[in-house]
Write a structure and sequence with these properties.
Helices cover 63% and strands 5% of the residues. The protein has 310 residues and is mostly helical. The strands form 2 sheets. A 3-stranded mixed β-sheet has the order 3-5-4.
Length: 310
């Protein structure tokens, strides 16, 4: 499998792609609506910011402690059940009966299990697309995530302006039900990837094994917002960030030193502040040297890392 045409010829991948895109868009809508609702109730920008991040921050904890469930449960049943449960949680927010602390607690709990669903989705992707197909599949999903984030912001902003936060939350709940239905109809039932009982100790054991391998740790350097100047990145060759929202594209350029070309992997939380500080120091030197590859920059980082001679 070497082309996107071959990739999208796989029916179950099309289902997974559509579900992932709609799910990301729905989560952005829900986060913005909840943040707006909390601000309207409390008048606190701090609590509004916490409300926006409440669904994202617990995912790291969920991945570390509950990740084993992604392999220990049937993937289709897990994904469908969780999307329905999440839609019910969003509907509870839309009803408007919970206090602020209850809304935040509910969203944070959802964030814990979002990590499990994400792990199941990636495991299913590996089963559907072995070999080079997995690379193409991840690439397509990454593009969809960026596009649906932007679309989610646009739709949420429109709904908030026209109908208010409760309408945006109800829209997110309905979208979650549609995602669950799409996966139930478009994915085949599969057995769990791992047989036997899965407990949290197994998640910790696997995490320890992965983090204990220096080579695997090097693959994640870019996720902390590092600059690829003499540092190991995500293995994509001389990568340059191209486009609006954290889409790293491999773009070798010998004039920039090949794999050590200065480029920015998306500065994910909490590496974003650290990444920006490092980038600013190195960008002052890199931006003075022209090269043939166009702007090398990270829109999320807010500054160019290099400039072309065109």
């Amino acid at each position: 499998m070497n082309t996107y045409r071959e990739l999208f010829a796989v029916g179950q991948f099309r289902t997974l792609f559509a579900a992932q895109a709609a799910s990301v868009m729905g989560k952005i809508m829900e986060s913005l609506a909840l943040s707006t609702l909390v601000y309207a109730r409390t008048g606190s920008p701090f609590l509004a910011a916490i409300a926006y991040l409440a669904g994202f921050l617990p995912q790291a904890v969920g991945a570390l402690t509950l990740g084993g469930l992604a392999d220990g449960l049937p993937p289709r049943a897990l994904l469908v059940s969780w999307d329905l449960a999440r839609a019910a949680a969003v509907a509870m927010l839309a009803i408007g009966v919970l206090p602020v602390w209850g809304m935040l607690a509910l969203v944070m709990t959802c964030g814990l299990f979002d990590a499990v669903a994400g792990g199941a989705r990636q495991g299913l992707l590996a089963d559907l697309l072995p070999g080079n197909g997995y690379v193409l599949g991840r690439s397509a999903l990454n593009i969809a995530v960026g596009a649906m984030q932007i679309t989610g912001f646009a739709l949420a902003g429109t709904l908030l302006a026209v109908a208010g936060p409760y309408a945006a939350l109800w829209s997110g709940a309905v979208l979650g039900v549609l995602v669950a239905l799409t996966q139930w109809l478009g994915l085949r039932a599969r057995p769990p990837r791992v047989s036997g009982r899965v407990v949290w100790r197994q998640s910790w054991a696997v995490n320890g094994e992965l983090l204990g391998d220096r080579r695997i740790r090097g693959l994640g350097d870019g996720n902390a917002g590092r600059v690829r100047t003499g540092l190991r990145g995500d293995g994509a060759g001389g990568g340059r960030v191209t486009g609006g929202d954290r889409v790293p594209v491999s773009h070798p350029d010998p004039s920039y030193g090949g794999a050590d070309a200065p480029a920015v992997k998306h500065p994910a939380f909490p590496g974003k502040p650290v990444g920006r500080g490092v980038i600013r120091r190195r960008a002052a030197r890199a931006s003075a040297e022209p090269g043939p590859g166009g702007w090398v920059g990270g829109w999320r980082a807010g500054l160019p890392v290099g400039r072309s001679g065109e």
